Amino acid sequence: MAKLDIVQIPVLSDNYVYLIREPDSGAVGVVDPAVYEPVLAEADRRGWTITHILNTHHHPDHVGGNLAIKEATGCTIVGPRADAGRIPGIDVEVGDGDSYDFGAETAQVFDVPGHTRGHIAFWFEGSDALFCGDTLFILGCGRLFEGTPAQMWHSLGKLRALPDETRIYCAHEYTQSNARFAVTVDPENDDLTARAAAIDAARARNQPTVPDTMGLEKRTNPFLRADAPGVAEAVGLTGADPVAVFAEVRHRKDSFRG
Ligand code: ZN
Ligand code: FE
Fold first, then answer.
1. Low-confidence ranges of the chain (pLDDT < 70)
2. CATH of domain 5-254
3. 134 included as an active-site residue
């Protein structure tokens, strides 16, 4: 089985939309189309016909292109069952534990509430690819608009359990500001310090920092490390429950100006 071809399309100020193609069947999906024009243009340029839209959650910068792309292509829209009412044009509702066949590949679906109540993630195990929307970012996580710290910590735990080689295709280029914050809550983490420097260098060259791997995230993303003693200590919560540490790290990030 061939792996997915994955094309990253930067749109708006910092969104990434992904075109994914399963080569055996020719199925082509769009993950979280914020907009439609650049997506249709990129598919056209490659001679690809869009057959699917995969939505992680209802925010306009993830579903804004749904109806125009569906009208142009007749594609099938797959999105979160728990939030179907807020996904424009949804055809197929999926949720935790479901598998969705995409050509010869299969996406496993996780419910990952926290950023929104109906957020899902798609994991293509055969391609080591995770599309996680605004749940997990490189060195960060989504804001808790509709969920609790406990929900988000649990959601991130499902993603953290994936193999180290999993590539994280998140929906925003927030990495550099995330890194500036991360070093304040995990100051003794040498892997993080080195990574932050590499990220600054990449951004200075205008290179994307997405995707990167789960293995690196596990070692350096403070939102995946609320159960690490160094993070608890840095936020003054040595020995506290990881949910409390996570809540404090998230709270500090919400007001961080770096
Ligand atoms: Zn969002
Ligand atoms: Fe977003």
1. 1
2. 3.60.15.10
3. yes
